[in-house]
Specification:
mainly alpha; 0% strand
């Protein structure tokens, strides 16, 4: 269970990530990279490489946040459902 501070930090990281992928072309690059890694037969061993690549593309915080979102337990999203994120980030 996430406490109030963890929920706040989760929201802050999502907002930061939203800003990082808002630049033209970045989202396409991230999508291509994710597709390559997810379809790889060695997905588990490539997560570290994925994180490093995303950190280069998006910045360290945003790259780490995106990998965290991809690997976090689904229950975390249920816990932070009440955290309001501006619609322009979605």
């Amino acid at each position: 269970m996430l406490d109030h501070e963890e929920k706040f930090l989760f929201k802050e990281e999502i907002l930061h990530l939203g800003g990082a992928v808002a630049e033209p072309g970045i989202l396409d690059n991230v999508e291509d990279l994710l597709t390559d890694v997810i379809t790889s037969p060695r997905f588990d061993s490539e997560v570290f490489t994925l994180e490093r690549s995303l950190q280069v593309m998006l910045g360290p915080r945003a790259g780490t946040t995106l990998v965290g979102l991809l690997t976090v337990a689904p229950e975390v999203f249920d816990e932070v459902a009440e955290v309001r994120i501006p619609s322009e980030v979605h």
